[in-house]
Design goal:
Layout (H helix, E strand, L loop, with lengths): L19 H26 L24 H27 L8 H26 L4 H30 L14 H23 L16 H28 L4 H25 L5 H25 L7
Helix pairs in contact: 1-2, 1-4, 1-8, 2-3, 3-4, 4-5, 4-8, 5-6, 5-8, 6-7, 7-8
Length: about 300
């Protein structure tokens, strides 16, 4: 009796569950969003903010920098090019979650949010160039990046949870009383980051020698900037006491410890740079720390709230 061999289908099919690939793409999104904050900081700190003095063209008549523009044009154009990397990752993420609209709507819409905001962020970058690095627009550019970082952090949490088939982001019980400090930590982190952009706008690293600066007293706005940081330390210590004294999931406990570590390191960098004349390397590390602070705050909030876990 003859038997017909069964051949595996070669047709590509989109996943119907959250896979490790989807989670990997979410991690790639988060890493690239943090990375473009760092490279954007490098643009400003090297005085390359107007290395490409036009947008969307680098210069009138050319999309790419010319030899006459020197290293500043290369640095600025390199940062612009990274936007396409973010778009490619975001598009790949959308493809991987396309069939999850009903089973995992939160993951689906987080992925779409990343894709939708990236072009908006690029336009804000263009306005930054058109306004010759107006510090208010530069601040908005950074805040938009911080929002993308928070969104990507949520996507990492949710895809990781679904890919592993777990039921709780906290990894166990969430103690009563955790919601308030988690919310406060996220809000205070956001306020600290926003005030930090104003401090930067009053500081010496404008991105170009002729760029406008805020008229604020740098010392005054720096003192205002640290107020939410002190409050953030207080609420994080409250959260630490709660998770150490009550039954708590391991993931939530780690989120609190990670938050505390980021605050301590970021605060140390901030004070060191302030009292040493804002050296470029420390300022760049402080920008990285700002991104990691928003990741840690978002992670703590997400693991402390009672939102639906598998969506």
């Amino acid at each position: 009796m003859s038997q017909t061999a069964t051949r595996p289908s070669s047709r590509f099919e989109l996943p119907t569950t959250v896979t490790k690939l989807t989670h990997g793409l979410a991690i790639a999104s988060l890493a690239s969003q943090v990375g473009i904050i760092v490279t954007g900081g490098a643009v400003r700190l090297t005085g390359s903010g107007l290395g490409c003095a036009n947008w969307p063209n680098c210069m009138p008549g050319t999309m790419t920098p010319t030899r006459e523009m020197g290293i500043h044009g290369i640095i600025e154009f390199g940062n612009r090019t990274l936007t396409f990397v973010l778009l490619i990752i975001a598009l790949a993420t959308i493809v991987s979650v396309w069939k999850l609209r009903r089973s995992h709507p939160t993951i689906y819409w987080l992925a779409w949010t990343l894709l939708a905001i990236i072009p908006v962020q690029a336009v804000i970058g263009g306005i930054t160039v058109w306004t010759k690095l107006n510090p208010w627009v530069v601040s908005l550019h950074f805040i938009a990046s911080a929002f993308l970082v928070c969104t990507a952090a949520l996507l990492v949490n949710r895809t990781g949870l679904a890919a592993r088939g777990r039921q709780s982001l906290a990894g166990g019980p969430v103690p009563s009383g955790m919601k308030a400090p988690a919310w406060a930590a996220w809000i205070l982190s956001a306020v600290a980051v926003v005030l930090g952009t104003i401090v930067t706008g009053a500081g010496p690293h404008a991105g170009d020698p002729d760029a406008p600066r805020h008229a604020f007293d740098p010392d005054l706005v720096t003192k205002l900037h640290v107020v939410p940081v002190y409050l953030l330390i207080a609420v994080t210590l409250i959260a630490l006491v709660i998770v150490l004294r009550r039954p708590t999931g391991a993931a939530l406990r780690h989120a609190v410890l990670w938050m505390l570590l980021v605050i301590v390191v970021q605060g140390a960098i901030g004070y060191t740079q302030h009292f040493n004349g804002l050296p470029i390397v420390l300022v760049l590390l402080h920008m990285l720390g700002s991104a990691l602070l928003m990741v840690a705050a978002t992670n703590l909030w997400d693991r402390s709230t009672s939102l639906l876990r598998l969506s």
